[in-house]
Specification:
The chain has helices spanning 3-6, 23-32, 46-53, 84-91, 99-107, 122-135, 192-195, 198-210, 223-228, 281-297, 301-310, 337-348, 364-369, 371-378, 402-406, 418-428, 444-460; strands at residues 12-16, 36-41, 57-60, 72-75, 96-98, 112-117, 141-148, 153-156, 162-166, 181-184, 215-219, 235-240, 247-255, 258-266, 269-276, 319-322, 328-332, 355-359, 383-386, 413-414, 434-438. With 461 residues, it is α/β, with parallel strands linked by helices. It folds into three domains: 3-101, NAD(P)-binding Rossmann-like Domain (Rossmann fold); 110-310, 3-Layer(aba) Sandwich (UDP-N-acetylmuramoyl-L-alanine:D-glutamate ligase); 319-460, Mur ligase, C-terminal domain (Protein-Tyrosine Phosphatase, Chain A, Alpha-Beta Complex). It has a ten-stranded mixed beta sheet with strand order 8-7-9-6-10-11-12-13-14-15, sandwiched between helices. A six-stranded mixed beta sheet has the order 16-17-21-18-19-20, sandwiched between helices. Helix 6 (122-135) packs across helix 11 (301-310), helix 10 (281-297) packs antiparallel against helix 11 and helix 16 crosses helix 17 (444-460). It is globular and about 60 Å long. It starts with a helix and ends with a helix. 49% of the residues are buried.
Length: 461
Amino acid sequence: MNYDNLMDKIKRIHFIGIGGSGMCPLAEILKSEGFELSGSDMNEGETLDRIKEDGIKVYMGHKAENIEGAELVVYSAAIKETNPERAAAAEKNIPCIERSVMLGIVTRRYKRSIAVSGTHGKTTTTGMLSQILIGSGFDPSAIIGGKLPFIGGNSYVGSSDIIVCEACEYVDTFLQLNPFISIILNIDADHLDYFKNLENIKKSFNRFSKQTTGLLVINGDDENTLDAVKDVNIEKITYGFSEDCDYRAVNISADKGVHEQFDLYFKGEKLTEIKLIVPGKHNIYNALAAAATAHYLGATPKEISENLHKFGGVHRRFEILGTPGGITVADDFAHHPTELKATLNAAMNMGFNKVWAVFQPHTFSRTAMLLDDFAEALKIPDTAVISEILPVRETNTYNIYSRDLGAKVPGSICLDTFEEITDYVCENAKEGDLILTMGGGNVYLCANMIYRQLKYKNDII
């Protein structure tokens, strides 16, 4: 079925799991286009409150009768075929599509769709680009993988023909997209439970690139990316540090009160100076990708510089919760060795007395396949504290445990529960230290527990 054509014939759409961070933005955009929407979810939450405030009917719990009147049903990846609403849709022959398919449909309704892809940095770069474009008056729509403080959420409904979204490679979901502009930040070995090897990942990015209709914005310093797109015959813009890149970061330095600053050059000429308040070399690359894309769309160097300087990060990307008792508590989504190394190297250069990395391994397959790489990354901080592995969608057929990782990291501590970890780091961390929780799962809960315990201890002293 051609779902793009179907959208011109229907009026009412039902979302199963509408409160999900990936579902809510799509619902908001479709509501703004005049579609009648309803949705269901199991849990209350901030995104669900936002949906209700937008006038969308929300049912708590999944029941067959919730889809009554729907002409199309959209479900999140977590919703199984046995879900009563999916089953009812199948019984009534109501078209039923997964969220990534709807993302493709929605983005194709915009003349200038921009998809941000890559193994690392998608959410930060999407946030940076969205902030530049919104702050410069382009009025794009945006779908972001984390909460962007600048817009107070993870989505923005604009009135222009531009939409910015993330393009995730896992299980090839980004192949549902046909962007006008595709950004490829980097290509690394990840999701090996699905891709098996790096060559297969590069093949998927090659297919994704060939589905792009207008422009590729690519990291000119990343060999895997260059290899993946070498036979793609559309316009390309490169960014990076090397002299043959179109957009370059030159004269990189650190300034008091600013984590990174550099001169932005385009084809050998200086455009502007960029001062970032988010740390790390990886964020210079993210900023270059956002700046290059925004400049191509017509943003001025002044607008790019001013909006990047205001960018304070997105939720769970070196997000500082507070500094109770002089101990800084922060949380980061890093869950791949490359991300851990980038974030921890940045942290070690920020002047803290001691850096504590509290790491929650994410999936058995990733931990087993990249065990030595994880160990090398966790040798960077002063002390690594490792929790149990979060299974997510897997069973432990790999016979891998946190203690296997800990055995490769001298001085590390392996503790099973967040309660044990909280007690340990709160007892041992001192004024001037950084406690950084890291992982793609729910380790942010541990960050909150640590922050509350330290704050309580400080308040009663």
